[in-house]
Amino acid sequence: LAVNNSNLTPHYISKENEMMGFSEVADTTNHKSRSGWKKRAVAAACGMVASLALLPAARADVLDFNSVDIGYHFDGDVFQHGSYQFTSLYEGDPAYGGGLVGAVFDGTDLGVCGNLTCPTNNPSNYYAALNDGLLSMKATSGSAFHVTGFDSSYIKPFNNQNTGPAVLAIQGVRADGSVAEEYYSLYEPAWGFLPYQTSTDFRAQSFVQVNFYAYTCTYSGDCYAFDSNKAQFALDNINVTAVPEPASYAMLGLGLAVVGAISRRRRAV
Amino acid sequence: MKYHAISMAVLALCVSAAQTAQADELRRSYIVRLADKPVAGYTGGVAGLAATQPAYGKRLDLNSPDVKVYSAYLDQKRARVQSTLVNAPVSYDYKVVFNGFSAMLTDTEVRQLMASSDVAAVTANAMQHMETSYTPAFLGLDQPGGLWSQLGGKEHAGEDVIVGIIDGGIWPENLSYADRVDASGAPTFDASGTLAYGPAPASWKGDCQTGEGFTTAHCNNKLIGAQYFDAEFQRTGYTLHWSEFRSPRDSIGGTVGHGGHGTHTSSTAAGNNGVQATVNGVPMGATSGMAPRARVAMYKVCWTFNDDRDATGGVNACFEGDNVAAIEKAVSDGVNVINYSISGGASIDNPVEYAYLQAANAGVFVAVAGGNSGPDNTVAHNSPWLTTVAASTHDRQLAATVTLANGAKYSGASLNLNPLPATAMVRAEDAGVSGANANQLSLCYSAASNGGLPVLDPAKVAGKIVVCTRGEIARVEKSLAVLQAGGAGMVLVDDGGGPVADVHSVPAVHVSVNDGHLIQAYAKNVGAKGDISKFAAIKGNVPAPVVAGFSSRGPNTFDLNVLKPDMAAPGVSVLAGVTPGMSAAQHDQISDGTLVPPSAWAFYDGTSMATPHVAGLAALLRQRHPGWSPAAIKSALMTSASSTKPDQQQGAAAGVLPWGQGAGHVTPNSAADPGLVYDLGENDYRKYACGSGVLQDLCGIGSIKGFELNLPSITVANVMGSQSVTRTVTNVGATAASYTAVASIPGYNVQVSPPTLTLGAGESKSFTVTLQRTDAPDNQWQFGQLVWSDSAHTVRSPMQARSVTAIVAPAQLKSDRVSGMRTMSVVTGYTGKMTAALGGLKEVSRSSMTLPQAASGAADTLNQAIASCKTGSKGVYAMPVSIPANTVVARFETFNRDVQNGETGKQDVDLLMLDGSGALVDYSMHVGANESISLNSPPAGSYKLCLIGYELVNGAPAQLTLSSTIVGRSDVGGNLKVALPSKVYGGSTASIGLSWSGLASGKRYVGGVQLFDESGRLGGTTMLSVDTNNPVPLAAPVARTRKLNSDL
Fold this sequence. Notes:
The complex is a heterodimer of chains A (about 270) and B (about 1050).
Chain A: E1 24-28, H1 35-46, E2 60-63, E3 71-74, E4 78-81, E5 84-89, E6 100-106, E7 125-129, E8 134-139, E9 144-154, E10 166-173, E11 179-186, E12 194-197, H2 200-204, E13 209-217, E14 223-224, E15 233-243, H3 254-263
Antiparallel strand pairs in A: 1-11, 2-15, 3-6, 4-5, 5-8, 6-7, 7-15, 8-13, 9-12, 9-15, 10-11, 10-13, 13-14
Helix pairs in contact in A: 1-3
Chain B: H1 6-20, E1 28-34, H2 65-82, E2 90-94, E3 100-105, H3 107-114, E4 119-124, E5 127-128, E6 162-167, E7 180-181, E8 187-188, E9 194-195, E10 223-228, H4 231-236, H5 261-270, E11 275-279, E12 282-287, E13 295-300, E14 302-306, E15 314-319, H6 320-333, E16 337-340, H7 351-361, E17 365-369, E18 387-392, E19 396-404, E20 409-413, E21 420-427, H8 438-442, H9 458-461, E22 465-469, H10 475-484, E23 489-493, E24 508-511, H11 513-523, E25 529-532, E26 536-539, E27 567-570, E28 574-578, H12 584-591, E29 600-604, H13 607-624, H14 630-639, H15 658-661, H16 668-671, E30 676-677, H17 682-692, E31 714-716, E32 722-731, E33 737-744, E34 748-753, E35 756-759, E36 764-773, E37 782-789, E38 794-801, E39 807-808, E40 812-815, E41 820-828, E42 835-843, E43 845-851, H18 862-871, E44 877-883, E45 887-894, E46 908-914, E47 920-924, E48 931-936, E49 941-951, E50 958-968, E51 977-979, E52 988-996, E53 1004-1012, E54 1018-1027
Helix pairs in contact in B: 1-3, 5-13, 6-7
């Protein structure tokens, strides 16, 4: 599988960049780093069925996780939040799976991260992707949506040997299965959650599914996504806008299909 | 979500303030640290307020407008927090090196403060003590001294450098603090003498505070400052012992009090050169401090108070609230160096350690005592910004010779004034009363140590030299036993701690282990005889320096990736000024100024005595290199240090290892020109503090691990495969130089890149050291070194590394929630699957009992405690404990709160656990009754838990409640679950989650998780401790003054 450092170079994560003002849009139709999961997602998208369900009114939402129960999330776990459905996934060695990949933490419990270092300036719930975990979201209705921004931070493991900065990848899946991807530097959890805005280009696009995952990088600038358990991040306040266009009606069934595709691996251990 | 719920927190404060007004709860002493940075550490960030931290190499100027404005801001915010504590008595406000205050608080107030965003930490005020292990009186010496003449005595050594001593006060009559000289150049207080010192340096802002037996006339141009701090002590409610002075004056010493320590440390660090010392009227020659021209400022914080458990009727202690106030004042006053020969500092977030972080930011070098609880792994003051000092011997031995009738001669430590002619000799083992305990007999127990029953038989001992073995009871107690049995002399056989010259009741020689065994073999013979000579001072007769047995050993007990202690310095048989023993009537005359008391000197042992050697040397380096930071001074002292000689300790306690000697024994002459220094500053410490996980409020500029600090030592607690560390050196030589590295450590391949460094004068360059594990066994520290050398300098750094087992998990996680989650990061040394077993959560069970006062000698040392526990004798309460198979965790605890009359910490209860074979499993023997023994994955079997009423109030039995929990895999509760990763990776980390729900509030629960590697081997166990009773912080445990090992 080996998703090491496919398309990241050190300057993306150097401190010379402005803390929040930088992003990279990679319009990748041949994105190679997301093998197993991506294949399933595309297959699910092709198998979608039309639905006659009522569309929600177009509106902007801030997904703050405060209404989501706190708890740990395993590979394949699904939860609803507002009009969106989230799936926590393990993207490492296909021979393994079912393990801990995320959590919804109560930020008022400052000890929740034990000997890890988490951002502490968030006195409410937030999502924590753990052990190289990926968080996938889509509208429950299947509609397309835009992502305009989110808050995030690195989550540092204990004894963080040879680990430098981290990079957050946000990947948008279009209705046709093609993918757009942006990267953001994640900073020390000690700096707390920082607000990120997606690029003008990215936010203009309509996606049927958006995935968040992280790379952990060495000080020499090599970044790795799914083979160390060290790629971890905190996520909150995802700014989304639903797209009430007819083309997206057809996406409604996608979420259910994907869940079907991945549920065979859920809690496989 | 919202950022920073300040408004909510303030609301909470107001609400709970209303509640406290009606509660009449017990108040305890706490130190509260507020969220804003103190003046010495403020680098900006509050809108409109400029940074106040001094620039590198610059001093803190408290009169600068920026400092005044920021101080006012801190005052205002502190007042706002204090306004919510309506009835809380406040002892001190702090703002220079520590932002906060100390106060007597109720549990409710503590909880309210802990919930406030204005508050960074609430710490229970701990009682510390001075780090002297023995204070042997000394009877005469017929050879002149000159102990420090090779180090001190320089005409201007320490000129205009200010050394602040935070200690037990000062005896101003000692000529070490005179500012005049007589016609011959010797120090004098006589007004007719010539003034030898100019006015205090212009930067000095301190005071000469008056009080009992101390007037402004006691200060002068040498002793420029003298102040005392007792607000926190006063809150304790203790009564000052009669020997004490409520003033900067050191208390009365000798055999009647506990004074002398502050005078000893200050005269060692910066006492005048050419002071004629006498001990009990016998001239000892001239003495000198390490930096004899430095100015002295005393900050008295240690007080002797009534306690009838001690023979003097008093004990001495130093309360942290007072200590922080003294540090704050010393830094404000403008001292350059602080000497802190006081215990404490196990964790870097301790208020004293925190205050010293800010002192370092202000450019103040701080030397601290490493502790006298060796050779156990008990090193104190673990912060990297401190210079932590171990004690070693010097090569001047006070020795006498025992000559056997067969002609063999053995030299040993002695203060014997009366030569003993050829006299019959007998082994203690052959001289017991009928039925005497063999162990006690061999150790020459006195009657007093054995419940009034003598063990030596006068019929076998009368008129003879008795060969006794060291251990368990005080050394001088053994010669007393010999005297009481009619013996004529004693040969004391060492136990590995190293011979000590004491004043004994009969002519005595303390010989080494090996010599002792030869003498014992000879003394078995019928007709054995020997004589003992008068003692003399002998140089070079014993290998020196050797790390003292009592010197607390590393590794660092807070962070295994930072070396502690840092270095060793002389701390055995150190001669310096003390206070005389005087009567209560004389005390009163001193108090009212009608008696000018005499001076006194004595030989003291302790890391307390080693510390001022380093403080004095730092003053010399500060004078030579005014621009050097405290870290640069420490680096120069460490990289120029030389190795000590082997001691008697084995394994990790061996004195020659970095855990014993740090970087080595200080070598002052080469420290002045070290070639390269490893420097550190504020930002490095902040990143480290942030990464440590206990000082999260210092975060904001990143975090690093201990091995990433630019220390002049390299310590890596876990090399999983390979580990690189980066260091930066600065050429402090006068010219450009080219250095070459040589580095090695067993079990690892070491690469230094680049292997050579060419640096211009003042230039800094970085290099990387990569350790690649080859054949280093699991879990065993390996020791090597890195040396950079050019033609003129050798810059040596100790290098320690270890590789641990397949899974390393934290020992404990804590929570106070009835439902909750705890996530932990474990280090994984293999690739594959991980499995786990759970136990609990299980409620802590409490059982009441009456604990008697243990007998004298029951638990003065660890060995005594083990022996008493094994047999259940001497009033020790031995309780059988069965640990079933598949036990995950077990914990046994006592608390001050759970002991009758224990709230003040005066009830000293100890815990000890033995396995079925009688071997020690663990112990908890601190001052007071807050004791805890935790066992992770203990093997099944029959154990014995012993509760020891070590010192109970009035010796009366006390009701106490023992909290105990044994959690097995079959114990289920609180819906405890574990979340494991799908796969783990070698040389990486993995996150693991624990969650629970539905616990009852107001209770305490224990659970645990065992983690197994792919082959099912147990890798690590983590205890989960959930206290739903809204706990308030316990004081940090304080080690006993009298150390636990058998080195008596």
